Every structure is written in structure tokens, then in C-alpha cells.
Amino acid sequence: MLKKGVRVLAIGGVGVVLVIAALFLFVGLRPGFDGTGVMPRFASTGADYDALEADRERQRANAQPAVNVEGATGMPTALSSPPLPVGGLATGAPSRVEVRVEPEGWTDFRGSGRDGKYTGAPIRTEWPRDGLPLLWKHPIGPGYASFVVADGRAFTIEQRRRQEVVAAYDLATGRERWTNAWDAEFVETMGGPGPRATPTYHLGLVYALGAMGELRALDAKSGAVRWRRNILTENGAPNLDWGMSGAPLIVDDAVVVLPGGSGGRSVVAYDKRTGDPRWRALDDRQAYTSPMIVTLGGLRQITFVSATRVVGLAAENGRLLWEYPWPTSQGINAAQPLMLGNDRVFVSSGYGQGAAVFEVTRDGERFATRTLWQNMRMKNKFTSPLLHDGYIYGLDEAILACVDAATGELKWKGGRYGYGQVMLAGDRLIVLTEDGEVVQVRATPTRHEEVASFPAIEGKTWNHPVIADGRLLVRNISEMAAFDISMPR
Fold first, then answer.
1. Element (H, E) at 166
2. Nearest to 23 by CA among 52, 48, 43
3. How many CB atoms are closer than 10 A to CB 351?
4. Which residues contact 56 (CB under 8 A, 6 or more apart)?
5. Are 163 and 194 in contact (CB under 8 A)?
6. In sequence order, what are the residues at sequence separation of 6 or more whose Cβ sits closer than 8 angstroms to the Cβ of residue 38?
7. DSSP class of residue 285?
8. Which residue among 16, 214, 253, 344 is least crowded, i.e. fewest CB within 10 A of its CB?
9. For the chain, what is the radius of gyration of the CA atoms?
10. CB burial class (10 A; 0-12, 13-18, 19+) of residue 264?
């Protein structure tokens, strides 16, 4: 009987191998992982590039003339951009950026405060049974960046075969307006290929960071390069296991990035107009968070979570103001810190770390931190938390949860949405699940109350949703779509 059982297992094992081989050879699927890093899933890779290229060819055939990076009419005919000087302005670029009022839109990672809050016109909360009206849907290259929106365009960064591509899309139609690309291919086993960091829009320029450290300032109208640098190469920094992930931060006249170099080159500020270095600071090994500009103790400052601590830096020169120890397994911190007022900060991580609230106090030029509470009630693995009316909402690993910000008490836990992303619009949580479903949940500490849901896009979805100009924008590693979330007239 034992030998017979062994033969059955062997035959079954061969069958599994044959099935996997068929998926590889005939269906074009490749293995990946969900947010647990344990459960495998299969997704198309080569077929996605084929579909994307076919879609863009149809756009070229049917669209009105657009402008490419060289300034000629028509859709861009190639992904590559001509070589340009490292640092300094590109030939023919203006010597300064004209100061003007920032247009409405969604110009930064997770919104203007990098806190996941939409603060524009009220959204539609009564959704049709079959979901919000679809405005457009198109293929997109792999990657985990979100969109930023300004001047009627949505900007993101994606992988297209062996190039990283910053792309501008028409907000109304999803049609590609321009691309700017460079040779780079970042691939890792769990997440797959593609850049991770969301671009930043500021006063007519798009600042984009690739997974392998390429930083470019691009003209938002044409895609032309104003300046470029590689933040890893020039700061002697090794790449992270899952690639550069921190969205560039505009602070006054500088753009701040987190290369993680030693010898005082962990945090670097470049002149936002020319790309020339302004200042460098710290020796921290970096993690996967994005820098933020906040006010604590009455002082405007930069904060972020490195591989081992939360820090506050002087906005003008990067001087260390305070630190709060936050070491995690393999230095994996991905959730944004959450400001709870003028002197309190919430921080959370997965991998068994949990969450804490600490106080930042100021005495003249000196700052100090102390823990107010710490527990395992909220473990933000690679999604970030939200604050609403004194309560913190976020994905505790893969389940939505609500925690009292003052005490750390768990109010409720419910809704298995996988390792997706969450944003806040008014008193509603908008959840984009790991499987591409959009879910509306009331932001209330009373109970988990799901209001509506619908399937939006297909495939593994770790990208943050965006609301701008009455549209809900979503994307993942293969699709992007826009839905009408404006109030009915």
C-alpha cells in the first residue's frame, strides 16, 4: 500500500509539472505572488506587452495629432529619448520655471498631503448596482506606481519590455499623449517587473524616479527632459531588494529623494529647476516609504521611515531634528507615517512589527520623542493608514481595521481585501483590493459597513487609487481605467 501511495503521489507530481509547463509554453503565463509572498498566482507577461502595443497603435491610427518628446506632431513613434546631460538644464530649456497657481488635481503620491485624503468636490456615494460608470479602460505596462493628475492629464511610470517609461495620458479618454523612456529593467520574484515610485507633478514639471535610481524632471506638456540624474550611482547606494519606491518630494526650491547611500548620502535634495545637488544627509539604509513635509512642534520639516527609524529633518538643509527607533524584519518599512496632530505620529509595519503612536516634543532647538502606545492591532505591510475623526483606518495585513488613535484600542476588523490600497473621500473609505475590485466602506468606528463594490480591473493590484476632476483612476500591472465618481447632476 505504501509503494502504491508513493506511485500515486509521483504521478500527481508529474501532472502538476505538466500543467505548469503548459501554462508557460502555450498560455504565456508566469508565476508571481500575492501580498503574502507565499501564495503563488499566474499572470500573463508577454501577452500584456503585445496588447499594450496593439492598443497604442490603434490610438495612433485614430487620434488627433499629439506632441512627442522631440516636439513633432503625432503620437511618439519610439520609446527611447535622446541622451541629455546629467544635471543642469537641457539645451534650449528655460532658465527658470514660471511661478503660477497650482491647478486642481491630484499632484502627489496619495494626494497633496501624502495622507491618502481626497478633499475636492463631494463624490457620488450611491453607486449603481453594476458599479460606477466606466469612462475608459486601456492596457498599461507593469509597475506599482500610482497616477498624478494635473492640467487634464494623468501621469505615471511603467515598464515596457526593457525600458522604464513615464507616460502622460489624456484624463478624458485615457489616450497616450507622450512618453519618455530609458533603458532599465527591474525584476524581482515576488512583485515582478516595473518601477515602483509614483511621479510628482509641480508647476508644469513631472518628477519621475525609476526602480533603478533614474531621476528625471520632465516638461508636463511635451515630456522633454529638463534634467536627469541617477540617485543610486552618484550617491554610492546599492538598490533595495524591491527597488527604489519613494516618490520625489518637492520642498521649496528642492526635490528630495531617498537613495540610501552611506557617508551622509542617504537623503539628497536637488535643485528642482536644474538638478544640481543642494544638500545631503544621514547614513540610513532606506526602506520603501516616501518623504513627507509636515509640521511638528510648530516647525515645518521632512519626515520618513527608513529601514530602522522614523526621522524628522530640517526642511532647509536636512539637519536631523529627532528620531524614533523603528527596526523591522529585513528593514522592510513601506507604510507612510500618519500625523495625528501637531505633536503625535502613528507608524506601522507588517512582518510582525505592529503599530505605535509616539509624541514629538520641542524645547527650543531640541526635540524629543516618547512612546504613547504600541500594539499589534494594525500591521500595515505595504499599504498606508488614514485618519478620520480620531480613528485610524487601514489594512491590518490583508483585513480592513479601525483603531482608536488615542488609545490603540481595536474598534473593528472586517473585510478581506487582500494587500490592496485604501483612500478617504469625505466619510467614505475607497478600497482598491488586491484583485482589482473597488469597494466603498463607511469610515465609522461603530462597525465594518461595506456600502458597495464592483470589479474594476483584472490582475494583481498594489497601486494606489486616485480621485481627480470627478474621476476615479485605478491601475495595476496590466490595466488602467477611469470611472465617473462625480455627483449626478
1. strand 163-170
2. 43
3. 15
4. 75, 176
5. no
6. none
7. P
8. 16
9. 23
10. middle
61-86 pLDDT, tens digit per residue, is 987 654 444 333 334 433 334 444 45
How far apart CA 157 and CA 116 sit, in angstroms, is 19
d(CA 50, CA 331): 37
pLDDT of residue 48: 84
CA distance 324 to 292: 16
Identity at 387, one-letter amino acid code: L
Residue 276 · residue 270 · CB < 8 Å: yes
pLDDT at 104: 60
On whether the CB atoms of residues 247 and 290 are closer than 8 A, the answer is yes
How far apart, in whole angstroms, are the C-alpha atoms of residue 312 and residue 291? 10
The answer to whether residues 413 and 425 touch, using CB atoms and an 8 Å cutoff, is: no
State the CB neighbour count (10 A cutoff) for residue 94.
10
- Sheet harboring 479-484: ordered strands across? 134-139, 479-484, 471-475, 466-468
- Kindly report the pTM of this predicted structure: 0.87
How far apart are the C-alpha atoms of 311 and 42, rounded to whole Å? 39
CA 49 from chain centre, in angstroms, equals 21
Phi, psi of 125 (to 5 degrees): -105, -15
With 90 as the cut, is the pLDDT of residue 46 above it?
no
CA distance 231 to 209: 9
Greater confidence (251 vs 35) lies with 251
Q: What angle do CA 462, 258, 205 make, to 5 degrees?
A: 80
CB 218 within 8 A of CB 200: no
Residue 439 confidence (pLDDT): 98
Integer Cα distance of 266 and 429 in angstroms: 34
